[in-house]
Amino acid sequence: MTDLVTPSFGKLVAIKTLDGHTGWVWDVALSSNHQILASVSNDMMIRLWNANTGLQRGAAKDNGHSNWVRAVRFSPAGRYLATASDDMTIRISDVNTGFTYRMLKGHTGKVRAVEFCPDGRTLASASDDFTVRLWNVSSGSLLKTLNGHSGWVRAVAFSPDGKTLASTSDDNTIRLWDTTTGNEIHQLNGHESSIRAVCFSPDGKLLASGSQDKVLRIWDTTSGAMLHVLRGHSGLIHAVAFSTDGNQVVSAADDLTIRVWAAPLGFACVRVLTGYTGWVRAITLSDDENMVVYTSDDMTIKIWHSA
């Protein structure tokens, strides 16, 4: 793996490759205490790993899902795991026992993404039925259905204060929603194709999005204005993530590269990781930024540490 890097941004060192899945690894999540890693795949397996040793803690195929599992997220406190599937359901399971705590039904299309609100009380889901849904985690009841997209909804993200939800779609738009009222706040236009990834900056003032048009865009969340257009990838962008301090954005694409963009330098690209043998579909950064996890179409999960 080649690491082209600006010296002031340090280096990443590959420390572990986790094998076990027999299909594409669609998503990966890291618990808030950085101890457990969860992964899901089109092999219909949900796997839990010790994030420090790389040893598998458990695997569940009898998890209630009857089709590919697309997304996984830990609750903020780390007690629950939410998974989304092509079977049109969301399951909330106990991390320690694997017991399905809640099964959420209502979507009429594949569920492609889930996200816990920062307070852990609400779960957002995105589906091919063109809707975003908000659920009460404790009761499993449907709180709101957010209508407006005219294409499959690919990704969702909560603002750090939980008051705003961002959703992306094959209709080439990003929509910002008021989570209390369910009203649309902004519709962000500019991408020329399906938008596959979105994330808020730690202070909630910026939004980063990645698209099938091979471009990242940075937005002002208050005004909805587009601030930066980041070019460099030559393939569909699957994942974006801000660093904890908000100074960097990481993106992964079908061009088999991962790029790091520096906010203090006008979001200039300062690092390119190459050498992957499959599309990188998910990125997870630990809060202390000492651990980075990538999943790939080569059916593996790779863990990197900052040197």
UniProtKB/TrEMBL annotation:
WD repeat windows: 18-54, 62-103, 104-145, 146-187, 188-229, 230-261, 273-307
SMART domains associated with the record: WD40
Keywords of the record: Repeat, WD repeat
Keyword Zinc-finger on entry: no
Source organism, top-level taxon: Eukaryota
Domain EML-like second beta-propeller: 118-264
Protein name, per record: EML-like second beta-propeller domain-containing protein
